[in-house]
C-alpha cells in the first residue's frame, strides 16, 4: 500500500507555519523541517524520527517501524495528527534536536574526468 497525495497535503497543511517540505522517496514520502529529515509518511501514516527532543512531548506516539525492517520511529496516531499545535511543536522539536546535515558535494558532470 502507498500513501495518497491527499494525506501528504493534509500533513503539509497541518505543518503550514513551519519551514517544511516533502519529497517522494521509494514510493512513499520523507518530510523535512529546516532541511533536516524529521520523518516519513508511509501507508498514510506519519512517523517522526527519534531524537533527543523532550520525551514527554511524544507521549501521544508509539514506537513502530515505518516499513518492514526499518528502525523504530514514533508513529503519530490520527487524533494527534489532527492536533495542529501539538504536531507543529513535535516536528519543530525534532528538527531542533537533530544535527545539521553536512553540505552536499557538488556533482561531477557525466563524462568529466
UniProtKB/TrEMBL annotation:
Listed Basic residues bias regions: 104-113
Superkingdom of origin: Bacteria
Chain segments carrying region Disordered: 93-113
SUPFAM superfamilies recorded: YgaC/TfoX-N like (SSF159894)
Gene3D superfamilies reported in the protein's UniProt record: YgaC/TfoX-N like chaperone
Pfam families, per the entry: TfoX_N
InterPro entries registered for this protein in UniProt: TfoX_N
Domain TfoX N-terminal: 20-97
Protein name, UniProt field: Transcriptional regulator of competence genes, TfoX/Sxy family
Species assigned in the record: Microterricola viridarii
Amino acid at each position: 500500500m502507498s500513501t495518497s497525495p491527499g494525506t501528504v497535503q493534509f500533513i503539509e497543511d497541518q505543518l503550514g507555519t513551519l519551514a517544511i517540505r516533502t519529497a517522494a522517496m521509494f514510493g512513499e514520502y520523507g518530510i523535512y523541517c529546516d532541511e533536516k529529515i524529521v520523518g516519513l509518511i508511509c501507508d498514510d501514516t506519519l512517523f517522526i524520527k527519534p531524537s533527543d527532543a523532550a520525551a514527554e512531548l511524544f507521549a501521544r506516539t508509539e514506537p513502530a517501524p515505518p516499513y518492514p525492517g526499518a528502525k523504530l520511529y514514533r508513529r503519530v496516531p490520527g487524533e494527534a495528527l489532527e492536533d495542529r499545535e501539538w504536531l507543529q511543536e513535535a516536528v519543530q522539536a525534532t528538527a531542533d534536536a537533530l544535527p545539521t546535515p553536512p553540505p552536499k558535494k557538488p556533482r561531477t558532470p557525466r563524462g568529466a574526468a
